[in-house]
Amino acid sequence: GAAAKFVRPRGVAVSPDGTWVAVADSWLIRKVTVASGAVTTLSGTHRGSNDGPASEARFNTPHGLAFHPSGSHIYVADSGNHVIRRVDAATGEASTVAGVSGTEGLRDGAGAAALFKDPRGVSVSPDGGWLAVADTGNNAVRRIVISSGEVSLVAGGKPFSDYVDDAGTMARFSAPEDVSVSPGGGLVLVADSANHRVRLLEWRTGVVSTLAGNGTTAPTDGPQGNTSGFSTPLGVAFGPGGGWAAVSDSGNHLIRNISASWPPEPTPVSDPYTGYSTVLNLTASSGCPPRVLGGGGGGG
């Protein structure tokens, strides 16, 4: 409760059973029990990059968090170490899923063969088979197959920032900060922070389109995505039914709601390329950030 102190909480995720919240706080992963408000340290002690038991694990400015749907693990975008980590939700033991601590770059491959640059957002597929990663420093969205640790580039991936709606590596982002996988696993929302937009990525095809935002930073609402304005959106999360999304419009100090209409998603499967095309009808509206609270598969 009020006796607990945090240093710089950056990311949060709610456990699948709703009983506790994981918080990325400075160099630590902390646990907040919902019923009592009790705060404990789950993993980490000081700044560093060590894997191992909770008391030996080290993190460097972790940002996004996401629970595996089973609740067994928490995935961590350990941005200062340029890696994606996994923390055992029961014991706090930490391990590196992909990337090399202290080495930045853009390279696909399995586990330590892959490289990231300042990854800040992570989201788990509904079936727990893969991760979507906002590889912020590479202006890219990456995929990690959990069973193998295989990393691949889905969209973006140029060293320079830009704004282009297109497919795969022809698409352009500018500091994508967060991602959220849809309840059906076919779509991924991207908080494209420096472009002041929320983008939509069709997972199977890699096609990127603009869901909301017109590049202006005034907090304007509107019935269509291109009539709304955002300022440095840092977090995004699908609602439980997938028909709406919450956005942390950080530059405007608002939590915004995007209502969208699209066809029903296919039944979630293990294939990380599952997806479909859709036409969207949108409404953006304001509520009242830094990152949006994510659940088991949502961004954090």
UniProtKB/TrEMBL annotation:
The Teneurin NHL domain, residue ranges: 3-200
SUPFAM superfamilies: 3-carboxy-cis,cis-mucoante lactonizing enzyme
Superkingdom of the source species: Eukaryota
One family name in Pfam for this protein: TEN_NHL
Record-linked PANTHER family: NHL REPEAT-CONTAINING PROTEIN 2
Name this protein carries in UniProt: Teneurin NHL domain-containing protein
Organism for this UniProt entry: Hemiselmis tepida
Source lineage: Eukaryota, Cryptophyceae, Cryptomonadales, Hemiselmidaceae, Hemiselmis
